[in-house]
Amino acid sequence: MPPHPPSSPSSRRAFLARRVPCPHPGCNRWFKTAPALKQHQSSVHNFTFSSDPNATIYHHPPAQPAPGITRDYHEKLTGVTCDASGQPVDPSTTPPQVSDKSADDWGPYGNRLRFETAEFLFQNAELSAGEVDRLSKLWGHSLQTDGGGMLPPFTDHKELYQTIDATQVGDVRWDSFTLKYNGERPTMGDIPPWMDMTYDFWFRPAFSLVERILANTDFDGEFDYIPYRDFAGEEQMRRYENFMSGDWAWMQADKIAADPSTHGSTFVPIIIGSDKTTVSVATGQNDYWPVYLSIGNIHNNVRRAHRNAVELLAFLAIPKVAKKYTDDPMFRRFKKQLFHSAMTRIISSLKDGMTTPQLMKCPDCHFRRIVFGIGPYIADYLEQVLISGIVQNWCGRCLAFPNDLDGGGAPWTREFTQALAEELPPGVAWDEWGVDASIVPFTDNFPRADIRQLLAPDILHQLIKGAFKDHLVEWVGRYLELEYGKAGAKDRLADIDRRIASAPPFPGIHRFPDGRGFSQWTGDDSKALMKVYLPAIEGHVPNDVVQAFRAFLEFCYIVRQNVITDDTLEELKDALQRFHLYRKIFQELGVRPEGFSLPRQHSLMHYEALIRLFGAPNGLCTSITESKHITAVKKPWRRSSKHNALGQILRTNQRLSQLAAARADFEARGMLPPSHRTFVGPSSDSPQLQSTAGNTEVMEEENDEGLDLDEDENSGIVDERPGLAHSDVVLARRPARNRAKTGAALAIELGIPSLPILIARFLAEQVQPESDPPPRCPPPFTGRIKIFNSAIATFVAPSDPSGIGSMRRERIRATPSWQRGPARYDCVFVSTDDTQDGMLGMETFPCALVHWFDRIADARDELTGMWMVAPSFLDDGSHNLAVIHIDSIVRNAHLLPIFGKEYVPPLVTCHNSLDVYQAFYVNHFVDHHAFELVI
């Protein structure tokens, strides 16, 4: 165990409440730190606009602060607002009403009670038909017992379903078509059964879905009508964020604008994603192949939060045959051709709008002339092989050869691929160029579309599941076995597991009570392991292995950032170069003697170019489609009878869409409050001193907002937009019971004699903030106090799972007994110097009555890249304690013990590791907000 760090000198620290105002005229927001203000200015205010002075461009009046961001808009596709007949109108003109219906027209629901009941029963509670019948019966009996003679909102499930089905808004009906094999058949022997089968495809018209997305007023303010380029700072660095900020949208607009009739229109890129999923292994291989649709104009944070920005487009057929046919070249070719033929049919309704502008209503209720274009396709590597028509183990984006993928190559193009197919025998094209000449990608049937350049980056499968879990983690196990033998490797892997299991709890991070021992890995398991793995292997593997992991993790966290600049791309290239340098250790140690020509690791080389093309990759990832599986496939399947379930899944999705559209319509007409509130933050006034010392009772609101689900990174998502506060921390609603009521009594209870002095100093600093120096011996505080088990931190974290306003919420706990178990005292980041960025302006410490932590050095650890801290002590050996204002807290912090080369003692757990160890890493890999915060 690391030695105890030297005690730190006694020193007073500054505690910063939210005291930095935004200087922009009319903006009333306040911030805790200068970096937070800087981020607010760059995302909200700092836009100046430049363009051809003769071009007609409509936009909101520019703001004036500096330094700022220069935004260039496309000069031809300018998103001109129109009336319902397509004639241009001034953008300041009041748009048409959302609906001609009256403010009391609830449609088939009749009233608000029936709509909200339908929404609760079908969408929120997800009750089965039998459960709806039982509830309606009990509800009806209760009304009859009261003697009122009234009926429940719905008498049974049939009435509920009929009412939802009668909803007109959002009613995009499912359609179907069939395909079958019509090629050559064997002249001798049996005809394979798959040649006579008919394959069913279910879809919703793509045009109607895009029309519905565009008309959704929920996206107003989160929507880009014109391709643009942002330049930041005096150096005018490019700044990539949402999809329309990338070069691809701009270049597509250039191609569209070659036709003068499209000038003034709005370009709408069509984003498609597909991902096979299994709903239940236990009851057999119930596989489904859903296809999803979104548009590139919607901001990344909204697409990640879904909010109806990602629509279920189709269910593809999955041909299944007897095992003897699975490797039949004819059958494999047919499966590929079946996919591309089906996709051509499914999106065919958009084809006319790719050359001829279509008049459509937009989120701001104005009409615009819309031009479609097929945009990026979101898929994992195996589906990329299918979609692009390449041979497995080749790259779908460049001509790198499979035995030397990192050697790179020229980009694939439609023209080059067609030339290979026309000029070379199919076998030569397959073996020497990695092209399946029998496949014509569906995008070749649409204007300006080349699937070879539309394969989206896939952080989940390429980086997290692929390069990290399937490669690096597995290689560590192989190295240990080569170096120490099977018994020695097992011993060291057991210690790595104990280190992982000893990681303190943290919101949004899975616990690993048994280390890495999973029978089946999920994407969430891999993401969680990434957050705690680096310190766990230190001392068990060579330093170059640790450096390889560090470089790879930094690469992953950089590409996940919400805003990426030219400087960020330089950091990305540096991380990639270091990863390539240090991963050689696995080859030298005999773990990977054959080298690293692996498609998923090769994909890292394309991220810089893909960011420049499509903006920040966090808006284009299979994690979006995989999470959509839950609501679109898995939950509807669980609600079905499991017999011929697809039809039931389609009906469930249809009804969910109708309910969502009905709510959006009612909100737009002012009949329901908006779903997405503006987060303003609490009042800073408090009549009583409030402390977070904790309570032995498991009380409070541990279930508020699902925040007790610490292991689910999606549990902290907040569907609110940031208002006056960029981040806020508030105490829990109810104080703890059966605790001390005065400072003196609490000092006795906690065994901290200096507590009354600390409270008095804190109050003096609050009452006399301008006093310099602050009074050393203020009068003691004798009033009453309240003690709270926890506080809630709400903050903007666009790079992590977050709501439509990019906000997350997490609970900070300080309780002697958590969930009727051991104590839990969380660590937090506290702003102590608003002139410094990152760790140079923060300290870490257990929250509540805080015990400070000191930085061990003024720079990161060279090996892990993490800051190192240790508990702070005064010259007399006592704990360095303080009482701080809650507004100085930024959010939770996660510390991981510095294990060194020593094994974890058997009694160490996640509950006591902060007490047992005496030096820690500040884990900036715990989530992406922490990665950007702890610079």
List the helices and strands and how they pair.
Elements: E1 20-21, E2 30-31, H1 34-45, E3 47-50, E4 69-73, H2 112-124, H3 129-145, H4 157-165, E5 175-180, E6 198-203, H5 206-214, E7 228-232, E8 237-240, H6 247-256, E9 266-274, E10 277-278, E11 287-288, E12 290-295, H7 300-304, E13 311-315, H8 329-346, E14 358-361, E15 367-378, H9 381-388, H10 414-423, H11 426-433, H12 459-501, H13 523-537, H14 543-559, E16 564-565, H15 566-582, H16 584-588, H17 599-602, H18 607-614, H19 622-639, H20 645-668, E17 677-679, E18 689-691, E19 717-718, E20 720-722, E21 727-731, H21 743-750, H22 755-767, E22 785-787, E23 790-796, E24 807-815, E25 824-825, E26 827-831, E27 842-846, E28 850-851, E29 853-855, E30 867-871, E31 881-882, E32 889-893, E33 895-897, H23 913-916, E34 920-922, H24 928-933
Parallel strand pairs: 3-4, 9-15, 17-20, 18-22
Antiparallel strand pairs: 1-2, 4-7, 5-6, 6-13, 7-8, 8-16, 9-12, 10-11, 12-13, 14-15, 19-24, 21-23, 23-24, 24-25, 26-27, 26-32, 28-31, 29-30, 30-34, 33-34
Helix pairs in contact: 12-13, 12-14, 14-15, 19-20
